[in-house]
């Protein structure tokens, strides 16, 4: 009987959460037996990810739901909020681990049990690599910021575990060549190196998600092709100006197009709807899922940037 590997976003997120819980519980147990701060850091990372993963599963179901009276602009911002929480929590744990490691260095280091630590690092490296590969396979046919954030996490997790394994293997070697004095400092230096090398990942995840929550326009690689397609599609119309605004909360690209027409060229309702369908189609060929709202006017004040103060803006 074949193994039932995840094939959908929800099953992949469940698999990721279960693996994070497994490695987190294992690491926290081994950190007590080995007194390793590096393993404790790994355990805290994964325990936090498992807890957040429970909320991620719920959000994963919400973001594919249509808007309603309670959330009239949909649930896309929940996706950004979860990713921001993940990034900020990882930053907090990293800062705590860095502080504890520097304190240990200044107070004589921390001797650890190398044998059980090496066994743990082998299991963790294999588990993290497997999880990253499985999620990567699902992401080839599922576009999901939640899933992509988990893939980034497991890639870093695998690299951290491999680095920890390598460092722990140096401890018996140090004893063999008579460098006993450096052994208590290996664990603390390892934590510092891991935190500094991997700090960019939680910063990038948190920064991107927070900018989405602040309604910043998506990066140029996303926005410019959409803008160009809209302008090309509207070329046959006699327009005074076209204002294109877009945000991307999570996976949903939300585009508003305000078209200022020449006053001598009004459109009927039917013509307006045909143009809306044209713009929706041209944007959807570039990015999906997408929501395109198109408004036509002959008065620039209904389209131009506004502070929301009404006629005073004009």
Automatic annotation (TrEMBL):
Keyword Transmembrane: yes
Stretches assigned to the Cation efflux protein transmembrane domain: 15-214
Matching Gene3D superfamilies: Cation efflux protein transmembrane domain
Single GO biological process annotation from the record: intracellular zinc ion homeostasis
CC per GO annotation: plasma membrane
Subcellular location: Membrane
Keyword terms: Membrane, Transmembrane, Transmembrane helix, Transport
SUPFAM superfamilies membership: Cation efflux protein transmembrane domain-like (SSF161111)
GO MF assignments: cadmium ion transmembrane transporter activity; ferrous iron transmembrane transporter activity; zinc efflux antiporter activity
Keyword Transport: yes
A Pfam match: Cation_efflux
Transmembrane spans: 12-33, 39-57, 88-106, 112-135, 156-177, 189-206
Topology of this chain in the membrane: Multi-pass membrane protein
UniProt protein name: Cation transporter
Gene source species: Salinicola socius
């Amino acid at each position: 009987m074949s193994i039932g590997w995840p094939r959908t976003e929800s099953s992949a997120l469940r698999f990721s959460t279960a693996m994070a819980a497994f490695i987190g519980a294992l690491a926290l147990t081994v950190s007590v037996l080995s007194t390793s701060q590096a393993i404790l850091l790994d355990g805290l990372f994964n325990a936090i990810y498992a807890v957040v993963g429970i909320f991620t599963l719920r959000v994963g179901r919400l973001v594919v739901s249509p808007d309603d009276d309670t959330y009239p602009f949909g649930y896309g911002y929940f996706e950004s909020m979860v990713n921001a929480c993940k990034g900020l929590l990882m930053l907090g744990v990293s800062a705590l681990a860095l502080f504890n490691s520097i304190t240990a260095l200044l107070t004589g280091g921390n001797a650890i049990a190398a044998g059980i630590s090496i066994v743990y690092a082998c299991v963790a490296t294999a588990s993290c690599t497997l999880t990253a590969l499985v999620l990567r396979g699902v992401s080839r046919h599922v576009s999901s910021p939640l899933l992509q954030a988990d893939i980034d996490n497991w890639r870093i997790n695998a690299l951290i575990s491999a680095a920890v394994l390598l460092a722990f293997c140096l401890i018996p070697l140090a004893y063999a060549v008579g460098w006993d004095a450096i052994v208590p400092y290996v664990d603390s230096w390892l934590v510092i190196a891991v935190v500094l090398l991997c700090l960019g990942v939680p910063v990038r995840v948190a920064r991107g998600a927070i900018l989405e929550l602040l309604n910043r326009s998506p990066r140029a690689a996303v926005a410019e092709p959409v803008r160009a397609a809209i302008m090309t599609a509207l070329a046959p119309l006699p327009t005074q100006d076209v204002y294109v605004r877009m945000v991307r909360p999570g996976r949903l690209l939300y585009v508003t197009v305000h078209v200022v027409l020449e006053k001598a060229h009004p459109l009927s309702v039917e013509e307006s709807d045909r143009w809306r369908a044209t713009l929706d189609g041209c944007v959807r060929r570039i990015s999906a899922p997408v929501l395109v709202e198109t408004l036509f006017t002959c008065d620039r004040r209904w389209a131009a940037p506004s502070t929301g103060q009404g006629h005073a803006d004009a």
